[in-house]
Write a structure and sequence with these properties.
The complex is a heterodimer. By secondary structure, chain A is α+β, with helices and mostly antiparallel strands. Chain A has 3 helices and 7 strands. A 5-stranded antiparallel β-sheet of chain A has the order 1-2-3-6-7. In chain A, a hairpin with a 2-residue loop joins strand 4 and strand 5. Chain A is globular and about 45 Å long. In chain B, strands 5, 6, 7, 8, 9, 10, 11, 12 and 13 form a 9-stranded mixed β-sheet that branches. Chain B is 43% helix and 15% strand. Chain B folds into 3 domains: 137 residues, NusB-like (N-utilizing Substance Protein B Homolog, Chain A); 57 residues, Alpha-Beta Plaits, CATH 3.30.70.1170; 198 residues, Vaccinia Virus protein VP39 (Rossmann fold). By secondary structure, chain B is α/β, with parallel strands linked by helices. Chain B is built from 17 helices and 13 strands. Classes of the chains: A alpha+beta, B alpha/beta. Chains A and B meet through strand 4 and helix 2 of A and helix 1 and helix 2 of B.
Chain lengths: 167, 440
């Protein structure tokens, strides 16, 4: 088990489009275990492999308050969306920024679990938002991309400044 | 994705308590989950201390709270009650600054989705501070609040131990000692006491336990010298009495039934050479901990999952010289270490557990060779699970004979020996040695 390093905006590697998993073996198991550990330690409620610089279509979530709902989605696909919901989102790759984002309030998702077994699930509320947020990561998108140009450039400037100071 | 803010530790405590008290969840498991979600070790310690503290003092804290709020909280707001109980515990039993308790508890309501309650929490805890002088401690009129046990259990313990029941329940509410067992295959107890001294950990030898050490205060196992190298294990003193009582001889075939997590199993392997030991347990998940301990301590045994009451699927057909039957029980002797027990047990358990204990005894008895010994042990202080079970078993099996236990600890009972919670710094435990008549 290991805690992986999370990439921070505006790292260009967050823009990688992740490739589907084709072999469900020990390596995927290890990645999933490490991703859960990294997510819990952060602490976060969802993590996409892209965020830890692994370009594979793997995401993990746990939106319970007490660590009782760990879920893993591999090669996830949203096959149906319903309704509109606004929720304040934050991201482990964009620390200390919380902004309201609009997403579907209900989704039907097809995916594989870490053993390669396919499943289909209907989600709503925070978990639906979280899974949409993480699938965006697998496509190289961030929640800040869904904000107005003004807000986005303000956040970008803030992070670039912080990076320069760190150097 | 990141949640709006990471859950504050006091909100976590409230959730742990809610799950344990209202949903019957195990405290150990809930604390494990909370620890995983709480990276900061100081917050982990706070969560653990509050959860144990509130459960130990649950009935008196609840009485205190009922004097502070006019109306009881609605059922769906039970999590606020938990937050308040833990606030009271921090104010009056822990050394947390008053303003920190009040402010942080009021802030925690936000992450519990109960923002409306922040005024209530603030006012109730401030009120508790203002009225601290006028607070009347519980008297014997309110037995549950006085002894911090449920009524039925108070009555049961009182009936069993008419001269000691108060002391037993006081000990069950007190903080237990942190007790270690030195692995004598690696070094002697005195040598390890020196190692502890070098590490600035105050400790003393534990009477009646040749391998036992009591530490002045609890520490994470990672700070114990040589823990990973298998020099030492964490185990209560009473549990360390089992291995010597079993009187296993080098090379003998021994069955440790209901072995997980394996503390007594390891002690047997540490103290007797070349044992052919089988560790059996019905729970394969908990059995994994037997393997872990064996690996850490450098010991070897056979580990199998199976039901002790039904040996056919797992028994290899060869008789055992010794059997340790550490029976599943009410665990009323270890309430000080697992305070959720007093909330989770019900009077019905005392009807069901003795039947299970008898079934296991009957399942294992034919596996003992004539002339062999079986040690029946429980961490219960109730005769219904101890002497009563043995009386019936000795009736059923004419070749079974209770052997006298000549030791300086505990007190003799009809068939065995009992330690009450807190005696000799130990958990409550019962032991009975039964010998199988040899063939004529």
């Amino acid at each position: 088990m290991a805690i992986l390093q999370i990439l921070h905006y505006p790292d260009p590697r967050l823009r990688t489009i992740a490739k589907p998993v084709s072999v469900f073996g020990d390596e995927v198991q290890r990645i999933v275990t490490d991703m859960f550990e990294t997510m819990y330690a952060a602490p976060g409620i969802g993590l996409a492999a892209t965020q830890v610089n692994i370009p594979k279509r793997i995401l993990v979530t746990d939106t319970s308050r007490d660590g009782t709902d760990p879920r893993c989605f591999i090669n996830p696909q949203i096959i149906e969306l319903r309704g509109v919901e606004q929720m304040e989102e934050g991201c482990l790759s964009v620390p200390d920024v919380f902004e309201t984002v609009e997403r579907a309030e209900w989704v039907k998702v097809q995916a594989f679990d870490q053993h390669g077994t396919p499943f289909e699930v209907e989600l709503d509320g925070l978990l639906a938002v979280c899974v949409q947020h993480e699938i965006d990561h697998l496509d190289g998108k961030l929640f800040v991309d869904r904000l107005s140009l003004l807000k986005r450039s303000r956040i970008r400037r803030k992070f670039e400044k912080a990076q320069k100071q760190a150097l | 994705m990141k949640a709006q803010e990471s859950t504050p530790p006091r909100a976590r405590v409230a959730h742990v308590l809610l799950n344990v008290i209202n949903d019957g969840a195990s405290l150990d498991r809930e604390l494990d989950a909370a620890r995983r979600l709480t990276p900061d070790p100081r917050n982990q310690a706070l969560i653990q201390e509050c959860a144990y503290g509130v459960l130990r003092h649950y009935y008196s804290l609840r009485r205190h709270l009922s004097q502070l709020i006019e109306r009881p909280l609605r059922k769906r707001d039970a999590v606020i009650e938990m937050l308040l109980l833990s606030g009271l515990y921090q104010l009056f039993e822990m050394q947390v600054p008053e303003h920190a308790v009040v402010d942080a508890s009021a802030a925690a309501v936000r992450s519990l989705d109960k923002s409306w309650a922040s005024g209530l929490v603030n006012a109730t805890l401030r009120n508790a501070l203002r009225q601290r002088e006028r607070f009347v401690p519980p008297t014997t009129d309110d037995a549950e609040a006085c002894w911090n046990h449920p009524r039925w259990l108070i009555d049961t313990i009182r009936a069993a131990w008419p001269d000691d029941w108060q002391r037993v329940m006081q000990a069950a509410t007190a903080r237990p000692p942190f007790t270690l067992r030195v692995n004598r295959r690696q070094l002697a107890r005195d040598e390890y006491l020196v190692r502890l001294q070098d590490a600035d950990l105050a400790a003393r030898a534990l009477a009646h336990c040749p391998d036992g050490i009591v530490l002045e205060s609890a520490v994470p196992v990672s700070s114990l010298p040589g823990f990973d190298a298998g020099l030492v294990s964490v185990q209560d003193g009473a549990a360390q009495l089992a291995a010597p009582l079993l009187d296993a001889q080098p090379g003998q075939r021994v069955l440790d039934a209901c072995a997980a997590p394996g503390g007594k199993t390891m002690h047997l392997l540490e103290t007797v050479d070349a044992l052919e030991l089988t560790a059996l347990d019905i729970d394969p998940v908990r059995l994994a901990r037997v393997n872990q301990s064996a690996a850490r301590l450098g010991l070897q045994c056979r580990v199998i999952a199976g039901d002790a009451a039904l040996p056919a699927p797992w028994w290899d057909g060869t008789l055992y010289d010794r059997i340790l039957l550490d029976a599943p029980c009410s665990a009323t002797g270890v309430i000080r270490r697992h305070p959720d027990i007093k909330l989770h047990r019900a009077p019905d358990d005392l009807a069901l557990l003795p039947a299970r204990q008898a079934a296991i005894f009957d399942g294992l008895w034919p596996l003992l060779r004539p002339g062999g010994k079986l040690l029946y042990a429980t961490c219960s202080i109730l005769p219904q699970e101890n002497d009563d079970v043995l009386s019936a078993a000795l009736q059923r099996h004419r070749d079974a004979l209770a052997a006298p236990i000549n030791v300086a600890w505990g007190r003799p009972t009809r068939h065995g020996r009992q330690i009450l919670s807190g005696e000799h710094d130990m958990d409550g435990f019962y032991f009975c040695v039964i010998e199988k008549a040899a063939h004529d």
